[in-house]
From TrEMBL, chain A:
UniProtKB keywords: Membrane, Transmembrane, Transmembrane helix
Highest taxon, organism lineage: Bacteria
Keyword flag Transmembrane: yes
Name the UniProt record assigns to this protein: ABC transporter permease
Lineage summary: Bacteria, Bacillati, Actinomycetota, Actinomycetes, Kitasatosporales
Transmembrane segments: 21-44, 64-82, 103-130, 150-168, 175-196, 232-253
TrEMBL record, chain B:
Name of protein: ABC transporter ATP-binding protein
Similarity field: Belongs to the ABC transporter superfamily.
Keywords: ATP-binding, Nucleotide-binding, Transport
Biased composition regions of type Low complexity, renumbered to the chain: 329-338
Signal peptide residue numbers: none
Any one GO molecular-function label of the UniProt entry: ATP binding
Organism: Streptomyces amritsarensis
Domain of life assignment: Bacteria
Amino acid sequence: MAFSAVLTSEWTKIRTVASTSWTLATALLVTVAMGAGLCAVVNATFDTMPESQQIAFDPTQMSFSGMLFGQVAVLIFGAMVVGSEYSTGMIRSSLAAVPARGALLLGKLTVATALALVVGLATGFLSFFLGQALLGEHSTTLGEENVLRAVIGVGLYMALLAVFAMGVSMMLRNTAAAISILISFVLILPIVLSLVDATRKIAFYLPNQAGSAIMQTVSSPAVTSDAPYGPWGGLGIMVLWVAAAVLGGYLVLSRRDA
Amino acid sequence: MIEAVGLTKRYGAKTAVDQLSFQVKPGHVTGFLGPNGSGKSTTMRMILGLDRPTSGHVTINGSPFRELPNAQRHVGALLDAKAVHGGRRARTHLLSIAQLSGIPEKRVDEVLAVVGLQDAARQRTKGFSLGMGQRLGIATALLGDPQVLLFDEPVNGLDPEGILWVRNLMRRLAAEGRTVFVSSHLMSEMALTADHLIVIGRGRLLADMGTQEFIAHNSAGFARVRAADTDPDGRDALGTALTRAGGRVLQEPDGALRVTGLELPRISDLAHAAGVRLWELSPHRASLEEAYMRMTQSAVEYTSTDDPRAELWEQDPLALPAWEDEQAAPEVPRAAFFAPPPPGAGGSPFLMPSHPGELASTAKDSPEDTR
């Protein structure tokens, strides 16, 4: 069986269910709209901000602040792409037609990741340009140092988050359970860990905390002194998390009865 | 050809399939029969490599399903009519499965036409009835034009016309030289569809034989013969004569005799020769359904406390007659062979008055009226 055949099939699958378009559209719209709104507010109130914040101000990262909510939709996308195969029993129909589990998994990951990357890049550029337009005199341009990396980083971050969600969902085989765990892991756990000084450092190594370093451009001591890694180092840590989740998912798929 | 050898599947302490060995040959419809929970679906899933056997193995055309190159072109299966994403349209569902093996899009429309779903091709499958789901599942199985086909309970949810269609489809596929393996819990359906039967209960093999052979083995007939009540010695004289002639005779509670091993005309002749008047001489044949239920009775997983079948296998006090001195194991010993009496007296299926005055006369006889 050719791998291209699996890719064609997975592409047909992913484009013919409604959840794909509404989760990805939500991710894009929420991120762009929230980012734009916050940029407008910051622009209006910049002079009243404390001086320390003014020095550390990162206009690029500011325009991506909608990602905090947009990433939830990305997690749901990843969880549903895999979880719906199990909840509907479609996985058995697929495996009864083609017994190559590894190829099926890889095909699904490839197609969904590529889609998330495209939507992520679109989100990054749209958020950036709209945000900068609203930031007025505090804005920056693509030509500035590190800015293009950060904008492309949005795409990479969203794609990796989607793969992470797919890996977790593959281990749990249940959309609802995967979404609950992912959201508490990505949104709630960092807040809980940062409440206590002793655990604050652990929060830096959570996948989304580490990965979001790629979307910052200003490495002022005021903001990044705590984080023990740079933008690419942070993304590397996220990649390790993602690899672990996918490996776990693969082991479950190949070992357990479908 | 499907070949299972010592196939066993355990879930914890529960053994779903126990040392199952069988062959499914091409050119025949092979029925896979068993009560609910007897391990049919688990066996099918093991054939398709979805479940790993705890021990033993099963091969399709000599190799395990997971190692078949281009599996969809060799094996087609309907396991679960509901195993589709409800949000996807019927045609795109089939297309996504077809594309896995590079099957052309034209074939998708072909199989949709074969199963009669061409008008529902653009509908989302969540709106499908169970019968439409079964048709979609059958279409999926047919996509790769495979030589080996597996269908798990394909007639569930189909209307009579659909059942007839499935029956003809199975027969046609087998006539084309394909291996067709169909599971069902309905004996009556399988008796019409399958040439060969594999019967399991509680995961164990109970029978593996041709359908005709199964019928011959399991639904042996008997004759009921009753001497005139007015002649007290008649019954014993008749019994002795029949036993001497090589028949096996058992006594039924109402005083009639149950005779096996002798044809009806011969029984009549023997009675005449013995000078016994007969009040009854009737042929009885147990239905295949009864034979199947008797075979699987001890293997039924879920039994209602109010099980109407209980009467089928409750041993009646069949007395061994006086002239039968040896305590032989009776060939056809059970009351199970009686077809359940039709509702209403006189064999009419419904209690209907035969003439208008009948109801009035019974009303007059009822105790309420005599008061």
